[in-house]
């Protein structure tokens, strides 16, 4: 059984027991979060929502919050003496999927 959920403008394919990093939700470790924006559920047969599946809920437990590694972008224009270096660290919430209810 798996589900496709929407979080932060991105879509994730999740199953029970999966761990994934979502956008920061400002929750404490050990708390439970329910995601109701379920786009599709496959429990033997595929149910696709328009846009969301009614009554479908994905429950997850928060493991921790943190910051990802730094991603460095560097742009250089040859022969122009022009260069730009930028860094970015994404804040995330690590969750473990505990239950998929269709």
Write structural notes for this entry.
- With 102 residues, this protein is an all-beta fold.
- It has one domain (2-101).
- The protein has strands at residues 2-7, 10-15, 19-23, 32-35, 38-42, 46-48, 57-67, 71-77, 82-88, 91-101.
- A hairpin with a 2-residue loop joins strand 1 and strand 2.
Summed up, what is this model?
With 102 residues, the chain is an all-beta fold.
Total discrete domains: 1
Radius of gyration: 18 Å
Strand content: over 45%
Shape: elongated
List the helices and strands in order: EEEEEEEEEE
Estimate the helix proportion, in percent: under 10%
Quaternary structure of the protein: single chain
Poorly predicted ranges: none
Strand order of the main beta sheet, please?
Answer: 2-1-5-6
Please tally the helical runs, counting DSSP H or I stretches of 4 or more residues.
Answer: 0
Distance between the termini: 10 Å
Strands, helices and their partners?
Blueprint: E1 2-7, E2 10-15, E3 19-23, E4 32-35, E5 38-42, E6 46-48, E7 57-67, E8 71-77, E9 82-88, E10 91-101
Antiparallel strand pairs: 1-2, 1-5, 3-10, 4-7, 5-6, 7-10, 8-9
Using brief descriptors, characterize the structure shown.
0% helix; elongated; single chain; four-stranded antiparallel beta sheet; 102 residues; mainly beta
């Amino acid at each position: 059984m798996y589900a496709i959920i929407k979080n932060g403008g991105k879509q994730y394919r999740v199953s029970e027991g999966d761990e994934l990093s979502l956008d920061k939700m400002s929750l404490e470790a050990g708390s439970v979060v329910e995601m109701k924006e379920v786009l599709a559920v496959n429990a033997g047969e595929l149910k696709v929502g328009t846009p969301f599946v009614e009554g479908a809920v994905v429950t997850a437990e928060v493991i921790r919050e943190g910051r990802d590694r730094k991603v460095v972008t560097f742009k250089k224009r040859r022969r122009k003496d022009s260069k730009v270096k930028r860094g970015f660290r994404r804040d995330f919430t690590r969750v473990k999927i505990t239950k998929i209810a269709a």
